[in-house]
Structures are given as C-alpha cells and as structure tokens.
C-alpha cells in the first residue's frame, strides 16, 4: 500500500525518535494519539513497519556476502534465523546470494559464525570502521 503524506510524516518522526508517545507524535503530525496508534498499527499489519528494535552501538558489525555452494536455501535461512548475532539478512541479486549483517561483541563471534556456515558455501567479510548514518 503506498504511503500518503501523513504516513510519511509519522514514519519520519518515528525514525527520529521511536520512543516518543503516540500523543506527542500526534501533536507533531496534527492527529490525536489514538489516530497515530491506529495508523502505526496499520503500517505494522501491512508490512511497512517490519519491527521495532534497538541498534546497539557497542557491537562490532561485519558485512558478510554469502556465495551458496548448495541449493539448501531453506536450511541456510533457518540457520540465519537461529543465529543470535545475525542482525539482518537479505537474499540478494548481483554479487553473492545473501547479504548478512553480523553484530558481535568480539571477533570470536565472527569466527564462530563463519565456521558454522562453511558447509553452505563461501563468503567474504567486510568490517564496519565507523557508522556514518543510522
């Protein structure tokens, strides 16, 4: 469902401060708090908002491009879902089959992840040097 002007305004405000109350957000976009809550719930229901989360700044992020050697995509996706350090994962077109963002407390987390996924395929890793934009 395409977003209207009000939906975009609500998302922009939530992007700046997702902890704001519905009432405070309503004042910013000229709606009641109840109307904002209803609009946000509609965006959750239709998939516009996929999750509410915290992005930790104390973890090292690794960007892993996975090149599958086997067509066991369902098994690999289940592996990704079960791995606690996987912050996000996407099936991609272009170079590689998956792009995985791994958030670990130390390099041992990366080593454990890559060791466990070796039987699915090859990979290349890039490390985050500093975050430019959240």
Automatic annotation (TrEMBL):
Q: Which UniProt keywords apply?
A: DNA-binding, Transcription, Transcription regulation
Q: Which domain of life is it from?
A: Bacteria
* SUPFAM superfamilies documented for this protein: Dimeric alpha+beta barrel (SSF54909), Winged helix' DNA-binding domain (SSF46785)
InterPro entries, per the entry: AsnC-type_HTH_dom, Dimeric_a/b-barrel, Tscrpt_reg_AsnC-like, Tscrpt_reg_AsnC/Lrp_C, WH-like_DNA-bd_sf, WH_DNA-bd_sf
Domain named Transcription regulator AsnC/Lrp ligand binding: residues = 64-124
| Keyword Chloroplast found | no
The answer on whether this UniProt entry bears the keyword Translocase reads no
Enumerate the transmembrane spans. none
Biological processes per GO annotation: response to amino acid
Report the GO terms under cellular component. cytosol
The molecular function GO annotations come to: sequence-specific DNA binding
Domain HTH asnC-type: residue ranges: 3-43
Kindly provide the name given to this protein in its UniProt entry: HTH asnC-type domain-containing protein
Organism the protein comes from: Stenotrophomonas daejeonensis
